[in-house]
Design a protein that fits this description.
This protein has helices spanning 4-20, 25-43, 51-66, 78-86, 100-103, 111-130, 150-165, 168-172, 181-191, 193-209, 215-218, 224-237, 239-242, 247-264, 267-273, 279-282, 284-307, 314-324, 342-363, 376-391, 414-421, 423-440, 448-468. It is mainly alpha-helical.
Length: 477
Amino acid sequence: MTGLTVFHSSIALHSALRLCVQAFGSAYFLAEFVILAMPLLLSMTLFAEAPGALSLLLLVLMLVLLLLPPLERGTPLPAESRDELALPDGKSRAEAPPTRLSLNQTLRPLPALTTYRAHMMLMTVLSILAVDFPVFPRFLAKCKMYGVSLMDISIGSFVFSQGIVSAIPIIKDISYLQAPVLPKLKSVSRKMIPIIVLGILRIMLVKGTEYPEHVTEYGVHWNFFLTLVLLPIIEVLLHPIILRIPIALLGLWIGVLHQFALSSRGMKDFLLNTSRSNIISANKEGLLSLLGYVSIHILGLSLGTVILPPSPLFFRTQQQQLLDGPSSHRPSKFDPSAPRQNAKIVIELLSYSVVWWMLLAFVRLGLEVLRRMANISYVLWVTAYNTSFILDPTDPSGKWLLIEEKGPKSSAPALLEAINKNAFILFLLSNVATGLINLNIQTMFVGNMKVMCLLCAYLMGMCIFAWLFRSIQLRKM
């Protein structure tokens, strides 16, 4: 897929840079922007039909860097320099006294997860603007009917990744699943207010300015923001069920039931053939695809309970103890100091990946992928792809990136860490910027040279925003 092999080549080049070249401050940011962000932009525009050539170019540059002598032992690596820059007094993280946050129960960073989420966010941020220009090939845009594309996987991956991080509260304290539903709904709804506002503003601006839109994506009034708002709310409503059965099984059954409704209850015919005569039929795509996205979100949540804690069995053990044990023997809260069982996590993740790909191959014998209704083929495709992406060892040293971060050499690139830290805010900001650009520019009549300059400036702006706030989490989980 466009962007995937290019991104792996970028990571390889970045690793070579860290081994052989010392950089600090703004120079380090610019180096990571050119190596990690720009190739993704090129892979979906000028090199969209030849991503292999771009990957080859990046690998050649990596080989050139590897010809240079490596940095001597004890020389600060770029990742170390960024730690010093992150603190106003110039001290490194190791020298700094423990903060209140570090004393609380926190999950240790996983470079693979950071890299995966940042890559997904960069592709999403770029594609939502680039798709409006002729330089963005149509085969990368959303498929109107059956088939898969870059933007189709970006949408599903965004939902899947949100599901992964939504596992954090229940890993830290599984009793959260037993907490009263109403307070949890209020808390989740408050966090969704910015998305609700953005979704309503998008409807008003699109209708008020007569901006051209494809109603076959989500409907006349519905948009992706409304789907995002409902997913965590539905997850909270499912907490009593999540407590009692395997989460992966729940996510799969939701997808199966959704497909049953589409195939056997006339929903598919309603979506493809019914005229938009009322508010329900006008937004049939958004309404009918919602359950499919819920399935993706829950499957992402399931994966989060496997890779985030120290052991892949941690959550299931806590789940069983909470159900079977007396109140005096309730499971203890998450212990961040517990040793991480990396081999078992990798084996379980590999098993899930094989299962999802096999199920997808079986389902596709009679059912093609259709993002428009988020059918079971789309659900399985998104799940298999994202599970495999996280599993993939992109570190040229051969170490699994699922191992927690223990030092500069094992950490993810600083720019990707910054993007991942405020990914959701960056997504909202990119949508606002995309709307403003579309309101002021006739995108379909801009030449490729001007488009590339505009997209580069837009991408640079998003990365600068992430970099400036790399030490602050603007939106708490």
